[in-house]
Write a structure and sequence with these properties.
Blueprint (H helix, E strand, L loop, with lengths): L12 E8 L24 H15 L4 E4 L1 H6 L1 H9 L3 E4 L12 H19 L5 E2 L13 H7 L4 E2 L29 E2 L4 E4 L2 E4 L2 H6 L2 H13 L6 E4 L16 H8 L2 H14 L1 E3 L1 H12 L1
Parallel strand pairs: 1-2, 1-9, 1-10, 2-3, 4-5, 5-6
Antiparallel strand pairs: 7-8
Helix pairs in contact: 3-4
Length: 291
């Protein structure tokens, strides 16, 4: 697809990312689906991730795949395809435990277990991390230090918003170094003003609301001193036929299942409308800017 110059700044390469988890591993269902039952549920992450890779190939886009170690251990061929297609393989933790539910030692163990699984399957070094449900926040003052100690180059784990599931509303909106004595970069997710508050532009917001709001947020971000936007979504969001969780709270079901059928087309337009690349490349450029 050709780029439409009316939609974004062609000088800025934004970060495209996918959080690789299955439909039953999402935060919305964590109180009604026991992780002990995951292996007995219908897996759809492999087929959906391959569909995402195909979508990126059609658009000529390279992206970052923040992947659960649990998923990598079960679908190594899928992980190898991610790497073979030129995408970045990065960590999303082992099994989607939110960082603020752990202490520093448990977080360190979770990082190590996930990284071992990812690197074993993909055959490449993993240097990027995204916390499940953007769960690095004021409750986890040790998290960036642990990531730096483990040799991560960057994190994209902070949502500078106020939300019922996550958020660090006072966090910086642009890439920054959260530790004075470390080169570690934090790349917060891009937000958009909506109904009087800041909201993440990816995932459910992008799926549920007019795409023009996200396009506008990316243009605004790019115009602010050539700042790259960071966008995210999940493979289950392009799967309208996934199983339904009958006993989930109504609010969770509305968030999770609404407008799944519209997502693929909206993504195709977003991919064509702006320049996209891997998040590690965005982090490297931002690190150079901060040097």
């Amino acid at each position: 697809m050709l780029h439409d110059p009316t939609l974004g700044d062609v000088r800025v390469v934004n970060g495209m990312s996918v959080d690789i988890e299955d439909w039953f591993q999402v935060g919305a269902f964590e109180r009604v689906i026991d992780p002990a039952d995951w292996d007995a549920l219908e897996p759809r992450v492999e087929r959906n991730t391959h569909a995402v890779i195909d979508l990126f190939a059609e658009a000529g886009v390279k992206a970052t795949f923040y992947t659960l170690g649990w998923v990598a251990a079960r679908y190594p061929a899928m992980i190898r395809r991610i790497v073979a297609e030129g995408h970045e393989l990065a960590s999303h933790g082992w099994a989607h435990a939110r960082v603020f539910t752990m202490d520093a030692d448990a977080f360190r163990d979770d990082l190590a277990r996930a990284r071992a699984s990812l690197e074993d399957a993909g055959g490449v070094a993993v240097t990027g991390y995204r916390a499940p449900s953007f769960s690095i926040d004021p409750r986890t003052p040790w998290a960036h230090r642990v990531l730096a100690e483990q040799g991560y180059a960057y994190s994209s784990s902070v949502a500078p918003v106020r939300h019922d599931h996550y958020g660090w509303p006072d966090a910086p909106r642009r890439a920054h170094r959260p530790l004075a004595d470390s080169p570690l970069i934090e790349l917060p997710i891009t937000t958009a003003p909506f109904l009087g508050k800041d909201t993440p532009t990816g995932g459910g917001f992008f799926r549920l609301f007019p795409a023009a709001l996200t396009h506008r947020a990316i243009r605004r971000c790019n115009a602010d001193d050539a700042q790259p936007a960071i966008f995210y979504f999940h493979p289950w969001e392009i799967d309208p036929d996934q199983p339904r969780v009958a006993d989930a709270p109504l609010r969770s079901k509305l968030r999770h299942y609404s407008r799944l059928g519209a997502m693929r087309g909206k993504l195709a337009t977003l991919l064509a409308g702006h320049r996209w690349g891997r998040v590690d490349a965005v982090a490297a450029r931002e690190a150079a800017r901060l040097a």
